[in-house]
Amino acid sequence: MRPTAKDLAEAAGVSLATVDRVLNDRPNVSAKAARKVNEAIERIGFVRNPAAVNLARNRIYRFRFVLPLAGDQYLQRILREVREAHEALRSDLTDIDLVQMPMSDPHAVARYLSGLEPGELDGVAIMAPESPQVRDAMARLIERGIKVVQFLSGHEKLPAADFVGVNNFAAGATAGKLVGRFLASTPGKIMVVAETMMAQDSIERRLGFDRIIHDQFPHLVPLPSVETYGDERRAGLVIRRMLEHNPDIEAVYVLSAEARVPVSAIEAVTDPRPLTVVVHELTPFSEEALRDDRIDAVIAQDPGHAVRSATRIMRARLEQREPIVSQERIRIEILLKENL
To answer: What's the total number of domains in the chain?
Structure first.
């Protein structure tokens, strides 16, 4: 059984109050008493509980979410969840704040992260596209003792940072399976639409999608990814061009989180209902489009769960605990008109 503070006091031959003062670095402890407590810690294998220490010190955990400035309805859901977590966790000695910034300039993001100091924050959850500059800045944060969570979009070669979000290979593979099953034996092409292929989640979803289509549905041809960069005018132009040049497109896979812009661009050219359309994330637009058959399926993850999970993981790391894997796993949900 794990030794308690009472066991430590008995082993050291001091009072429980003295043990408390030593463990929590309080004043009025003689050097002799401190030495006896520290020797007893080694002798009986006492392990300090950082959570209890922080509670005794009334320590406030300071966490920050760094999110994109540009976004649509799904980003608004995430922002709302972060603000709700800020209010809900204040009584739990946890202060959550939020910073939005343009993610199109990785050097600017890296400079911002490089300016964060341990005295200012305990942990940061970052949603940023893959880039060497941002990845290196995140690694330096970890070296300085700031806990880092890659939020919904991860970076390769950064194993020291936790990741919160769905398995994006599996999410893309799920989309491939749905598209293939919906189309059955119908041959044709698949238009794949991304906001940017710089994002690690987009890369992984594309890889998972292509693997399933190539292995299980060889009569279907996924076209090169169309990138919209979240710009409605660009989306309208590139999607119109793709549809006009490929009249045998039978399906559309929107692998980024925001479906409103690409699906609206398709509607400007043709009725999407004869097409099989699979998108990611439930938003007011994707829910409405699912109900009226402009979208066939939504592959979703719960942003509220993701925000809470990122917060719990940062706190667990600070308290030198392992996060509970089953609790923090973000599950893939498949939403159809029939199960909304």
So the answer is: 3
